[in-house]
Task: structure prediction
Amino acid sequence: MFLLAVLCVLYIWSPATLTGGLGSTPNTIPRKTVPIGSNGGRLFREEGIWNYTTMLLREDLNVLILGAREAIFALDLDDITVKKAMVKWAVTDTERKECSNKGKDATNDCKNYIRILHKRNNDTMYVCGTKAFIPTCDYMSFADGNLVLEGKQEDGKGKCPFDPSQRYTSEMVDGVLYSATSLNFRGSEPVMMRSSEESIRTEFSSTWLSEPNFIHMAHIREGESNPEGDDDKIYLFFSETAVEYDSYTKVDVSRVARVCKGDLGGLRTLQRKWTSFLKARLDCPVPNNNVPLLVQDVFHLCPGDSTTCMFYAVFTPQLDSSQYSAVCAYKIEDIKTVFSKGKFKTPVTVETSFVKWVMYSGDIPDPRPGACIDNHAKQMGFTKSLDLPDKTLQFVKEKPLMDQAVKASGEKPLLVKRGAAFTRIVVATAMALDGTSHQVMFIGTKSGSVLKAVNYDGEMVIIEEIQLFESSQPVKILRLSNTKLYVGSEVGVVQLSINECGQYHTCLDCVLARNPYCGWDLNADQCSTVNSTNTAGTVIQSLSDGDARGCQLRDNSKTVSMSFVHGNTVKLWCQPYSNLAEVQWQLNGKPIEASDTFQILSDSLMIFNSSADISGHYTCSSVERNYKTQHIAYDLKMWSASGTTALLHDVKGKENTLVAMVVVLSLILAMLVIWNVYRGHLPLPFCHRSEESQYVNQRPEQKRASLTVNSNTNNNHVNDQRFSSSREMDRLSTTVGSSGQISFKYIDDESEI
Ligand SMILES: *[C@@H]1O[C@H](CO)[C@@H](O)[C@H](O)[C@H]1NC(C)=O
Ligand SMILES: *[C@@H]1O[C@H](CO)[C@@H](O)[C@H](O)[C@H]1NC(C)=O
Ligand SMILES: *[C@@H]1O[C@H](CO)[C@@H](O)[C@H](O)[C@H]1NC(C)=O
Ligand SMILES: *[C@@H]1O[C@H](CO)[C@@H](O)[C@H](O)[C@H]1NC(C)=O
Result:
């Protein structure tokens, strides 16, 4: 019974699940899996408000403007739990009734979902909502700590979707809104448009847009000094029904399209329509996948001038049969080349009515169809799109699709991973210790987590997977500031630090993490955020090799003595700090092989049907990239009635006080249970397993505490100091009830996630 109590405690200690690498190919297992309770993030959500899926970073005002359902918030950028202001924007009863009369769901769809938030100038923002299927826009200011809607109620058709479940995208360029969404109630008239005085839009033609899903828009400046005298461009990423495949079933493809900022439409042909709308297929080749993957989100990064821009895109399969998601990157120069030099496709009718799109090999008019008004056009006497000849415009109108696809940089994905589908991506540039810069990808998933990944010369390293929401809550938006990541879902927003290094407690863990933000500081004996002022030599970082030879390896793992009862199952706990580490158990110096008696799990060793010959000295080590760490050792003895103190006698050193305390608590618990049973208060001795493990799930801080104790490493004094000095110990307090029963109780009330 006493042993039962000990096992109970051990059971509570073990983390609920370690789903990290399950189902992944070996190279795409996240090195660490951070559970929801220990992600260190700050959560914002407001009672009764949902759908936190629109964000605008205002670093100039130090606020995060957050659009939700019927409400807009201004949150402190440094700490989003600080709400600086809020404004409600609800639908009226009449609007709701009209909406439900048109057959829409009154409790869900007939609400005002904030969908567009842009900065217009220093003082005003532009905001649009679905407003019960009457998309409406307004101007908003944040001044003197208040968010104020001006109440202008502009028509939002073509800017904001009617239907809150539809994908859309928009961009504000010099105070003018570019948007891609549906223009009508039914959602059947897709457009990409510019809402200026003279608004310009796409043709209503399936040749231009065929049942599209709009994903992302990006304004890329060409710069005053570009040699061609070319105009700024707006790039549009979307997926749509393909015309280029011989297929009986409907196949979708990913596309990139672009228009020129200065486009004013044509004079007769393409009046008030884009004269520069060209589109091309976007390829993200995943081996053994015949049906193209579809783009889900795009992020662009321009480290220097516009020629250095890269578009990072996440893709998921369109058929559920394959569970691979991928990230592909595209160089802007490759996209430009396809549009400015590539061949066009043209429709031809084969047999009776079947239309097939093939490469066009006839003459191409001059100026080139779809080109912006550049030096060449100006030399020919065309100073604006209204001047362009009909021949050029007619060509664009009929053949906006390029023959060539845009190939991924390196002609292969940066990352392919099985498991939860990717939903969103942002990319940050991290400066490593040696001055090289690395692109760190933050990828949101359908199961509420964020992956942090870097590609080192073709080798993809997933540094960690951080669980932020329940697995049923997909990540719906990601935004990045210099040092923080903001992650939105239908149920809340989480803020994370992107360059946090405190989670790595040992030199080995810090260096093998290959996290470009972090290096092991030998002087401070801790994992620190690297910066350019770090003097070389005292900080160790090895990003492309994971070379940790500079670490001073110390073995100060501890030994725990344990007793068991003949015939019982014993669980010895050992949690390596990396999912990539291989666990090795030894008994009296000999490797333990899996057998009927021994089962080696990722976090423990199970010993079944224990008998005298399993007694001995057990050690648990892990090996990662050829570096071996001993985590813990156990001295296992068969239980003898006289040995109540045997459990304690071998516990060495100050750092083991916690283990000792838990053991003492268990002893007291066991004795109280015995006493209670003896007095007849309890019918049978039992382990409050369901209750306790449930509480572990609910209050993950305790799990973190347990992890700290158990994931013993070479350098565990860091852990233990942190543990004993932190509030975690206070939270886990023991109370003795009036009936003399002991229960663990959570005192701290802090509502984290
Ligand atoms: C808004 O959030 C609620 C709660 O999570 C969810 O059930 C609903 O589907 C969301 N609505 C939209 C349009 O995303
Ligand atoms: C907007 O604010 C920035 C700095 O906050 C300032 O430099 C700029 O002059 C302002 N622009 C206008 C038009 O007021
Ligand atoms: C750079 O790092 C060192 C130690 O890692 C720290 O003391 C210093 O304050 C940092 N400098 C900046 C500018 O962050
Ligand atoms: C347990 O071990 C004993 C001998 O030590 C053996 O007789 C018995 O069959 C074992 N039981 C199981 C379930 O393996």
